[in-house]
Amino acid sequence: MHIIESGNVAAASGVKLARAQVIAAYPITPQTPLTEKLSEFVDAGEMQAEYIPVESEHSALAVCIAASSTGARAFTATSANGLLYMVEQVHWAAGARLPIVMCVVNRGIGAPWTVWNDHQDSISQRDAGWIQLYACDHQQIIDTVIQAFLLAETVSIPVMVCYDGYLLSHTYMPFDVPDPDKVDEFLPAFKPAYALDPKQPANLNTVTLPDIRPDVRGNLAPGYMEIRHNLHVDLRRAIDKVAEIDARFQKIFNRGGHPFIEPYCCEDADFIAVCLGSLSYQLRDVVDELREEGLKAGVAGLRLYRPFPEQAMVELLAKAKGVVVFEKALSYGNQGALFTDIKAALYPGPARPFVKNFILGLGGREIKTADLLKTFREACTQGPASIDTPQWIGLKL
Amino acid sequence: MSVNSTILSLPEEELVHPGNRACAGCGLSILYRIGLKALGRNTILVVPPSCLTVLQGLYPIAATQLPCLNVTFASTGAAATGVIGALKALGKTDITVAAWAGDGGTADIGIQSLSGACERGENFIFICYDNEAYMNTGVQRSGTTPQGVITTTTPIRGKLQPKKDVPAIMAAHNLNYVATGTAAYPLDFYDKIMKAKTITGPKYFHLQTPCPAGWGFDPRYSVKIGRLAVESGLFDLYEIEHGEFRLTGASLKLLGKKRQPVAAYFESQSRFRALTEEMIADIQKQVDEKWAGYEQKMAKKMKE
Ligand SMILES: Cc1ncc(C[n+]2csc(CCOP(=O)(O)OP(=O)(O)O)c2C)c(N)n1
Ligand code: SF4
Ligand SMILES: [Mg+2]
Questions:
Q1: Which atom of ligand 2 has the smallest separation from the CA of B55?
Q2: Could you tell me which residues come within 8 angstroms of residue B21 by beta carbon, excluding any fewer than 6 positions away?
Q3: Residue A386: its pLDDT value, please?
Q4: pLDDT in tens, B260-280
Q5: Spacing, Cα B134 to ligand 2 middle (Å)
């Protein structure tokens, strides 16, 4: 069924179709309408879930962590300072291997206060051990939310579904709401590996020593380092699962096909722009324009940021002459995090395209297509020098 | 109190294994053992970092036989909410959910999530064991450290501020049940847990658990010191059931009797060494006033 709705309603509709059983939420712009919508679904009896209006984001994720540990499918959503307020829990959820799904409706971080979009919030959590998926439009939001539950439960790792505040969360676009029966076929009920149960008592997340240690029967149990190593290995394995789940989704719903990176005009491209989120769709106009000018340009929207799909990235970029990374986030004092990741991925290859970095749109600064066009064109024509210092677009000093 | 257990009527089954990692003479380990007997096997525990985390054992060995979720320091009330929410969603309604936290995890960093869970009316039992400092990190002051106490962060003059009255804060949430307990009178605690299990909504327990390591006394005197706190009228056993306050057990028996001087309690522990005669006299006066109030209330009730 096609409807015209906001990105937040697309996300809420995905959560409803996925039959989340426990939802915890705390208001923060621009996420708020998403969880308001969920409370409406639950209150109206359209959705069977425990909706828990908590007193903070730290508690929102605490509820999800405990609910997931007890065997329920759990969901929360947040933005910016809300995400930062729950950081301890973000890392905890990954370490405890809980398949929680959380929408991060991307917004800049204070100080100073901003409610507008950039990616600093979710990028700051890239090392937490979560899977991070980014959506570029409303259809991808609803589809990705549904896929995220299956992915999380397949690998026992929490998943963040990130999408742009306001640009996607508060804009209205047509999208297809998948058929509920088909979603049930795609996403079976949650069967936890272990759930808190008085009949099978276990002590979860106990203090764990640096070294391996025998249990009372003499069997060796892993130490902290083994447990963390397993998380990393399983995150790497999740890359294949992302592809498998996308293929399965495509078979049932006839959408998808680009689980890691969504390319536009990249096959023969000499110059490829890379970015996260809705910006990649804005850059398609720029690419069309540059193509008309005779520059072989393309754009790649990264869908999976963690685990980082190096192989797919290298395959896409290796034949290009130049790569231009546009980022709405910055590792302050260094450079854009995605820029660093892309250079690292390309480094071992025999032919390395030049790679340039542009920072833009922080705190909702308007990204003008004309500026993108000029910047991308110049970056291509000015040639091969890789510049490590990021350049800023739209800065008015 | 309707029930009155004796040591012989307690369940024989031990849910806390002997030989756990608590210090010798730990007041917490006395009440944990008795408390789990009262809670019974059909319980899920939620525990934040504290001495109890250590008592529970180091992976892969656990000191208890109940399912237990270890959670982050500030999140106990919210984590209990999550367990309850999941149990509801899964249709499992007969399981008791009990959170068990230290004074820091309750009164300081954990008060937000505890208050939230109580305001939402979550059906669970929250047990705060108050050893009156951050013991697990090496005896730093907390919101419930009494005035004058020497800790590693109040090393010379002692704590300048008085103790935070957490049961009163929790009673202000209009809970159906708030109770105190002490390691010196474990049966009083046992009976109160048994009662709490029959009451719906949030139930709050505030337990005094003497701590030889942090309070500075010989481990053999834990119970004696706990009793002295009650007999001097410093720590009172009571329950507030549906808003009605009543003294229980040894504190109830103290009505109309002569109490021990508070100085006797202070002399028993090295943490009070910074208290001056003047401060002690002042505290004695406060305790006398509090008890005069109890006596008056009792006399009024008798008349009615
Ligand atoms: C967010 C966070 N801050 C600080 C700590 C360090 N910490 C662990 S236990 C503890 C003290 C606990 O005190 P209390 O709750 O009174 O329990 P006790 O150790 O006294 O039994 C502290 C400060 C932590 N684990 N997490
Ligand atoms: S430090 Fe105190 S509370 Fe902690 S285990 Fe030792 S005696 Fe018990
Ligand atoms: Mg303490």
A1: 5
A2: B54, B55, B56, B57, B58, B63
A3: 63
A4: 999 999 999 999 999 999 999
A5: 10
